[in-house]
Amino acid sequence: MDSIEKQQRKREARRRLRAQRERAGRLRGRVVASSLIVFALLWGGVFIQMATGNDPVLGNRPASAAGPPRGGRGKAKAASGAGEASAPAEAEAAEAPVIEPEPAPVTTGQS
Amino acid sequence: MTGEAHLGFACFGGTVTIHVRGESAAAGQRAAGEAQDRLLEAHQRLSRFLPEGELSRLNRDPRPLVPASPLLLELARAVRTAGEYSGGLVDATLLGEIEHAGYCESLGAERPVSLAEALASRAERAPAGPAPAARWRTVEVDAQAGAIMRPPGLRIDGGGIAKGLLADLVAAGLGESRAFAVDCCGDLRLGGAAGQPRRVLVEDPFGGGPLHELALREGAVATSGIGRRCWRGPEGRVAHHILDPRSGEPAFTGLVQATALASSALVAEAYAKAALLSGPERGAEWLPCGGVLVGEDGGVEVVAATEALVSQAVGR
């Protein structure tokens, strides 16, 4: 193999290497851009939901408060109906984002 | 969002409170006012201390079949319901026995004898039992005729049954409200369209702060105890208003207070009284939906709410 052919092969190898790097760079750029777009869309959705007052955490969700009385001697089972009840409650919360104050406590005693 | 309307007034020999949050402040106040009117009217009809009340007239009536208002018919049905739910331990036909024990007029808020005095006055402790005669079974309602059938001479005492019943009836009219609580002298009915849990504090019969706390979105809680209405009878013996149907005497079972949860205040009242009358050994058996028992030594036993009410009751 003479030196001219050797140099041509070297040039070809460098060209291919450069092309490979450029492809990798383009691919990386697309991934970064896609990630940024998805990130922006997700947080944009959250921002819009919060800005319109539909904070799901502040909605009426019965499941979050279910549980047995303190110190119960029997085994208290998980509330089977709580999950079913939470779906309409969430839907209602999405429609009516108003936060209701906690009802006043009441006392039970001997009459 | 509007706050709750609160009303408190004397009724049924104690204090009744109503809490209503409506779609507007005015709607809540209007609903609470209507509930108050209904309860005060019911008191006039069902109090055994008012001679011209409908219940007193029924008790005096010599006819076996007596026409009655819808409310009195409901009370007659409630007498049967309470008797059946409690295995006869809640017997609303013991009016003669309670008068014999000295409870002939409303005691109101006064407390002539303290709970400690009452407990010290009696040495024996025993669970109560149903009366073999089960007179409450003779009370029947003829719905078509709108009348009550019972043997002439049988007298009915609304007592706690009427409070539980009225809490249920008034609550039925408040179901559209965002949140409501009807407290008929300790017999509570809670609910509301908002489905928010409401804290329920269980009173300590010996004084001091609440001894337990629950939170219910919907349902009922009732408490029965011997501490609030104790007096000295005609022969100087200390008595109270929770009678052992078997003996007709005030029951000293070892428990001083029982609180029961249920889906209705009437049933909660029946469970609470049955638990109190059954004593510390078997009282918890009468709390299928959960509750709290307090012994004479101040010991507290909490019975966990079962699955039916767990989704509504929240322990703290």
* SSE succession of chain A: HHE
Radius of gyration of chain B: 19 Å
Arithmetic mean of pLDDT of chain A:
72
Strand content of chain A: under 5%
Explain the overall architecture.
The complex is a heterodimer of chains A (111) and B (316). Chain A is mainly alpha-helical. Chain A has a domain at 1-49. Helices cover 59% and strands 3% of the residues of chain A. Chain A starts with a helix and ends with a strand. Residues 61-93 of chain A have low confidence and may be disordered. Chain B is of the alpha+beta class and 316 residues long. Chain B has helices at residues 25-46, 54-60, 70-85, 95-100, 115-121, 159-172, 265-282, 307-310; strands at 5-11, 14-21, 65-67, 140-142, 147-149, 179-184, 187-191, 198-202, 212-216, 219-225, 230-232, 238-240, 255-262, 291-295, 300-303, 313-315. Chains A and B meet through α2 and β1 of A and β2, β6, β7, β8 and β9 of B.
Give the topology.
The complex is a heterodimer of chains A (111) and B (316).
Chain A: H1 3-51, H2 80-95, E1 106-108
Chain B: E1 5-11, E2 14-21, H1 25-46, H2 54-60, E3 65-67, H3 70-85, H4 95-100, H5 115-121, E4 140-142, E5 147-149, H6 159-172, E6 179-184, E7 187-191, E8 198-202, E9 212-216, E10 219-225, E11 230-232, E12 238-240, E13 255-262, H7 265-282, E14 291-295, E15 300-303, H8 307-310, E16 313-315
Antiparallel strand pairs in B: 1-2, 2-6, 3-5, 4-5, 6-7, 7-10, 8-9, 9-16, 10-13, 11-12, 13-14, 14-15
